[in-house]
Amino acid sequence: YYLSQMQNDLISDSLFLSQIAEDLENRLPVIQALLEELHKENNQESFNKVFREYVNTIFVPLYFVSNKATYNEMESSAKLGIIRDKELRNKIVALYNHLEITKNIFSVNYEFMQPVDADLIYGKGIAKYQKNQDRLFLPYISEGEIYKFKDLRFELESNAANWNWTIVDMQPAVESQLKELGIVLARINTYLNEAKFAFYF
Prior knowledge:
Elements: H1 2-38, H2 44-58, H3 69-76, H4 86-123, H5 134-137, H6 143-147, H7 153-200
């Protein structure tokens, strides 16, 4: 029962991390596009389009929290020992320790980027141009107004560089965690299938 519940938890974590991996990968070309537009001349239409995409893609917070409900229940009630396969039990404990490290990697990167982003979002007024503000400000925003943000080239380049570094730092951790999740899920699946076989025969 516990392993079946844990399997569901880990599948949820795996799907969450897969979405994050895709999100991280999708952010890189958005960063590159902004850098290219910052170095072009007389490009209001293309700059504004890329700027909007950057604002609505890069400034979306990244976080990861593992679904540890079953593991926490087993740990708090000292039931981890009922998993008879010692190697599997050790892999599960190691996995949840690594998932906590992954969560901390996200937290550290978010804490690093938050003040960097805040200067642009709030200090320079970019929050007004995010999609969730459309209903308030869209009627009052002109294309010329948006194009003036190109004057913040240094600040935007710095932000893009920091985000690029952050993403490149996070990608290996996410990929490694997905690989480990796959291994443990396969091992749990094998264990459960063997248990069912033993039950019927």
